[in-house]
Amino acid sequence: MARPLFARLQGNSRGCLAFEPFFLIPFSMFSTYATLYMYELGVTEMNIGWITTIGLIVQVLSSFISGYLTDRLGRKRAILYFDLLSWSLATLLWAFSQNLWFFVAAAFINGFQRVPHVAFYCLIVEDTRPADRTYVFTLLQIISVIGGLFAPLGGLLVAQYGMVQGVRIMYVLAFVLMTFQFVGRHLTTRETAAGIQKRQETRELGLNQSLIEYSGAFRELWADSNLLLIFAVYILFNFQATLKTTYLSLYLADYLRLDNSILSLFPAVSSVIMLLTLWLIMPKIPEQGANRSMMAGFALSALSSIMLVLYPSSSLIWIGLSTILSAVGLMISSPYLETAVQNAIDDDKRAKVFSMLSVLILLFTSPAGIIGGWAYKLDPRIPLWLVTAAFVLSYALLHLYRKRVSKLTIGSAS
Asked: Cβ neighbours of residue 215 under 8 Å, at least 6 residues apart?
């Protein structure tokens, strides 16, 4: 059964996905404790918010030039150079952080991750048939889920060595594994046809003309209201993810008083549930039901956050149930949302339009850290209410998008 399953992976998608676990496993280990690690080293809730926002501001700037750099260097070199900078170097800084300024420097460097982010999507999508893209993003989600199963290893390190020393070990491990991934992926992929063409065109145009063309991508976005709708959903999805990643662990440990070593169990539970969802539910979702699946996923995700704020119990069963709803919601929405966004962009304009989309995402998510920090200090439940609001609004926008697409389909058929 495995042979026909992975036979659909060809070329770059195979090379990209084969090495992805070496990033996602260490990331799932340290991301659960990143906020608590800063907190233990004396960084206040407000400063945690500022650090998150500084990183996002740098991501805005790097997003604006990410399309140009991806076209100018080529997909392969852009992703290699800037992954080594934004992740390999950043994990070393985190590993040896002593105070606030180490985290500020690491956030600044890590902000350049938007360049390899754009390059990765170009590399994995451009030579992949549109019909296979949902399959590729589903596999990417599976790998992310499997990576989450290793999160309890982080809990064991924290239990054995304490919060600070345990997280330092995680960051050193992340440096080794992530660097191996970046080099391995570079050696097993090839430059895409669109990447070769764009590299040549960008060299002929020069920097100034290229940046003028990229800034003009905003006009193209505003000209298509349906494209703006699906992009708005994607932006809200990223906004809530930033808030949830930054403050959920702190909420569970600081407000609900859960033991730090237990926190890593929830990503593992989430991963198991997502795998079961993939096996039991997703095969029953028809291709034309993608939008309905996303809407159901947003509803479940909103419900999972509401549970934690309406009844802030430290009961493992209650938090576990919230985690299950969130996992199912994410699994039945994320791959379809990624596919919808990528299929809405032409290959010839992918780097340019996706880099501008990244700018828009970050312009709206950059305040998330400060808003979350201020809101958490006011009431630790408010960040989760904001997460809920983002999902509710996403549901409404996707409903509108679905109705518009249906009208267009009926109109073209008649």
From this structure: none
